[in-house]
Design a protein that fits this description.
This protein has four helices and three strands, in the order βββαααα. The protein is an alpha+beta fold and 109 residues long. The chain has a single domain, classed as Sufe protein. Chain: A (Alpha-Beta Complex). Strands 1-2-3 form a three-stranded antiparallel sheet. Strand 2 and strand 3 (29-35) form a beta hairpin. The protein is globular and about 55 Å long.
Amino acid sequence: MAKALVTVEAGICGFVTRIAAEMDEEGMVGVTIESDCQNCRGLARDFPKIDPYGLLRGKAKDNAIFAAVARHPLHQACAVPIGISKAVEVAAALALPRDVHIKIEKVEE
């Protein structure tokens, strides 16, 4: 089975989070999280196995990843949940591994 590795450099907080996702023989994806962030470390201890096909079929409010994240005090704009989603998709061969970039600028006029 394929393993996906994702590194999230979250931004102004300076925390780095490493996510590993691997699909098992039953088609569920296990996720491990290592992070400089205390809140992400708490999330790592409370993370379920994920049904990757359920993520595609369901709505965001029913997403198992976001349900787990909601139980922990991550910042509203934290990029880690999206990194987890991408890792699960790649591990399940539902997406190709490709970097995602968000560029943020403040423009004074």
